[in-house]
Amino acid sequence: xxxxxVLSRLHELADPRAVAVWARMNVSPERYIGVNxxxxxxxxxxxxxxxxxxxxxxxxxxxxxxxxxxxxxxxxKVTEGQIDLQIAQVYSPDLCxxxxxxxxxxxxxxxSKIGQWAQHPEEMYKRGGYTLIATLARSDTLxxxxxxxxxxxxxxxxxxxxxxxxxxxxxxxxxxxxxxxSDLNQAAAAVAQRIGPITIDYGDTSCKNPDxxxxxxxxxx
Length: 221
Prior knowledge:
Shape: globular
Mean pLDDT: 94
Order of helices and strands: HHHHHHHHHHHHHH
Helix content: 55-70%
Number of helices: 14
Structural class: mainly alpha
Number of strands: 0
């Protein structure tokens, strides 16, 4: 499938209501067509992994195409140069999350990018760093507890004053870390209790962030 064909399919799948939702969240990605994630995933399955096409779709600057690019990207062919170029072009929380979970987390560069991004001054880089930590916490069973515990002091010290989308990522990361083992659960729950409730600005929508303490104390590990 050629890039022009994919873009035509995206326009066919577009839903103007999705654009309105992002507008209410005060996040209006440039040239957002309005294709929901379910339809994007279905299209990605049809296309299958395609590194050259993923690069072309990312280069279009159409938000939906960039999201799709992360879904069809072949992580085995992704270079560090590509990762560094693309993270610099990320401008929204959803694109940041999909880029990190679909692409970066599936490369051997995962740990090095956590190290580079978790204290980065730019909002999307730092969100990306914490998104990668959360992804690793949920999916990897070999990493020692100490690796994840090392990020709890930074979350506790910074989350209240962090920028909106970093704060959201830290909140989810705290929950992910505390959901790994009983020891991490106790440590993360203690941090959540000291932090108190965290509010994320989702604009004029009904979206709400999960309460970390409730999440960490309502499940058995």
